[in-house]
Structure formats: structure tokens, C-alpha cells
Design a protein that fits this description.
mainly alpha; 2 helices; membrane; transmembrane helix; transmembrane
Length: 75
């Protein structure tokens, strides 16, 4: 969730710089100093969270398959 917040803040910074300031140097500095790092941090956090969720789901699927095999053997 935090990764999406960082990404939205980066998008808001770009939109604000383009619509309000309309100065090329300000837009370049906003993109370089705040928006791009926020995009990168947000993407990293989202990727890290997705990897953790994938590991948890793989463990749950393995447990369910193991239980199903045990039930099949007991019948």
C-alpha cells in the first residue's frame, strides 16, 4: 500500500509542476529530484511486497496439496 502512495505522490508532483509552474527548469528539477525517486521507491516497495505475498501463497498451496494427498491416502 505504501508503494502506491509513493507512486501517487510522484505523479502528483509531476502534474503540479506541469500545470502550475509551466517552467521547463522547474519541471526538470521536479522530475529529477522528487518524482523519479518516488517512482523508483514506490516500485521497489510494491515489488518487494508482491514477492513476499507470492512466497506466502506458494506455502499455502503446498500445505493444501499436502493435506489433499494425505486425505487421498487415508481413503
Amino acid at each position: 500500500m505504501i508503494g502506491y502512495i509513493f507512486t501517487l505522490i510522484g505523479v502528483a508532483a509531476v502534474i503540479l509542476a506541469v500545470t502550475v509552474f509551466r517552467d521547463d527548469t522547474v519541471i526538470k528539477w521536479v522530475l529529477a529530484c522528487s518524482s523519479f525517486p518516488l517512482f523508483v521507491i514506490g516500485a521497489f516497495i510494491k515489488f518487494k511486497t508482491l514477492v513476499e505475498m507470492r512466497k506466502e501463497m506458494d506455502e499455502k498451496v503446498a500445505e493444501a496439496a499436502k493435506k489433499k494427498d494425505e486425505e487421498a491416502k487415508s481413503k
